[in-house]
Amino acid sequence: MDVQELEKITQSIVADGKGILAADESDGTIKKRFDSIGVESNEEARRAYRDLLFTTEGAEEYIGGVILFDETLRQSSSDGTPFPKLLESKGIVPGIKVDKGAKALALADGETTTEGLDGLRERLNEYGDLGARFAKWRAVITIGKDIPSEYCIWTNAHALARYAALCQEAGIVPIVEPEVLMDGDHTIERSFEITSRVLHAVFIELRDQRVHPEGILLKPNMVLPGYGCPQQASDEEIAHQTVRCFRRHVPAAVPGVVFLSGGQSEEQATGRLNAMNAIGPHPWKLSFSYGRALQAAALKAWSGKEENIEAAQRAYYHRAKMNSAAQTGTYAPDMEREAVPA
Ligand code: 5MM
């Protein structure tokens, strides 16, 4: 393992004003997204959609890395340039989702564990040859009555650490994503408690499995009340609780925390990230690795039509720019009106 190389990759992904575009929707998820705009999910439509995102001029000012799905890593832009090469030529680091999804956890009703460790060493070598410099593995934790169990939390943490160790052995930076879902009516206090338990377990397992903390990125949820909770919270409260939770559990050696958006609206995800950076400095870079919160407007603007590509690119560029400002704590809601996407 070349630790300096791993650290160099993490630093360039979360350089000042930069974050990650999560474009690694698996087949089922991208189908859901395409269904919402009435577009059939076939290989060419998926390629064309990702192509419009990756060829957006100037997005590289704000995007340091893109997470791809297996199929996308092997696809090319319309001019024939393989996607990993295209991204690299813009100074964007290509990454790859390597987990095989969250599956029912045995003897644990309503809980899941993420699969994909079998054969991972070999897959990582192939992904490295195809140009991936970082990887992502997502564990899913649900809050409900009597869940999550410690069994679920530790099983997921163990798998995340096994994955991270294999990545570092292969010279690939692991993004460690333990997502505590926003589904449910739980309070922000309960989200704080569960996120604490999860981060505690994850960093114990990472340490025990010899993962080099300077060579990872953490991709967590923010500490938020559930969607169904009657008591919603201000951006400032969310920022305060999230930072307080992370200061307790995330080692200062970790270079970057790149949040997932988890179903928040685009402006909420931006505003809350900004609120956290506004109360810095923090020991780690606080940035974004958004899927829906970077793509929702672009997807809608595109709607599967070639004549809408430019409008979709403007929408994506705008969102990337807003989140870049949030990464440095300089975002303000009136900036949304600066460039209203057509
Ligand atoms: C882009 O969505 C990613 C892949 O999800 P599936 O495996 O379910 O298809 C997902 O892991 C994503 O990277 C994170 O959940 C963050 O995305 P959001 O939309 O929550 O920012």
Account of the 3D structure:
By secondary structure, this protein is of the alpha/beta class. It has one domain (3-338): Alpha-Beta Barrel (TIM Barrel), CATH 3.20.20. Helix content is 44%, strand content 15%. It has 12 helices and 10 strands. The protein has helices at residues 3-13, 27-35, 43-54, 70-73, 83-89, 120-129, 150-169, 188-208, 235-249, 266-278, 292-302, 309-327, and strands at 19-23, 63-68, 93-97, 102-104, 112-114, 134-141, 173-180, 217-218, 256-259, 285-290. The strands form 2 sheets. An 8-stranded parallel β-barrel has the order 1-2-3-6-7-8-9-10, surrounded by 7 helices. The protein has a two-stranded antiparallel sheet with strand order 4-5. Strand 8, helix 9 (235-249) and strand 9 (256-259) form a beta-alpha-beta unit. Helix 10 (266-278) runs antiparallel to helix 11, helix 10 runs parallel beside helix 12 and helix 11 packs antiparallel against helix 12. The N and C termini lie far apart (47 Å). The mean pLDDT is 97. Bound molecules: 2-O-methyl-1,6-di-O-phosphono-D-mannitol (5MM). 2-O-methyl-1,6-di-O-phosphono-D-mannitol is lined by residues 22, 24-26, 29, 101, 138, 179, 260-262, 290-293.
Overall geometry: globular
Determine the number of helices (DSSP H or I, runs of at least 4 residues): 12
Largest sheet: 8 strands, parallel, barrel
- What does the radius of gyration come to? 19 Å
Would you identify the CATH architecture? Alpha-Beta Barrel
| CATH hierarchy class name | Alpha Beta
Alpha-carbon distance between the termini? 47 Å
Question: Any idea how many domains?
Answer: 1
CATH H-level homologous superfamily name: Aldolase class I
Helix content: 40-55%
User: How many β-strands, per DSSP?
Assistant: 10
Low-confidence stretches: none
Order of helices and strands: HEHHEHHEEEHEHEHEHEHEHH
Return the average pLDDT rounded to an integer: 97
Task: List each distinct ligand once.
Answer: 2-O-methyl-1,6-di-O-phosphono-D-mannitol
> Strand order, biggest sheet?
1-2-3-6-7-8-9-10
